[in-house]
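User: Teach me something about this protein's shape.
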Amino acid sequence: MLEYKLAWLVENRVIHLQISGAYTLATVQELVPAVKALVDAGTAPVHVVWDMTGITKMPKNIREPINEMSVLRYHPKGGWITMITNSVMLRFAGQIATVFLGANYRAVGTFEEAIETLRRVDQTIADELKTLSTSTTDR
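Assistant: First, the predicted structure itself:
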């Protein structure tokens, strides 16, 4: 069973999404509208820190989950997606998904690397990101 946490890391600018367990199409169908609602409500560009380190199983056909994300395709408020994972397969799937979505993407190994990436690419939130502690990963 998949569990996830979805919240603002930086209010209206950076979404923090943590996923653990078996990643299924049903979960994607539940999760994508929630992510879209936050992006819609945010201030452009809205970035995502997507922590996939807890994933235990991926769908066999990655095309279906990617198709479910089509509502986010070329979203006018979309920013960078930083995926935290050490899985080569998840990095590749993330790369395919972000090309399809028209988003900038970077796979990293830790939460700290994700924050540093966003600090470099978006100076408007660099100070707010700098104040985050590593305890944020426990959200």
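Now, about its shape. The longest helix spans residues 25-41. The helical segments are 25-41, 63-68, 88-101, 111-121, 126-130. If you'd like, I can walk through any region in more detail.
User: That's plenty for now, thanks!
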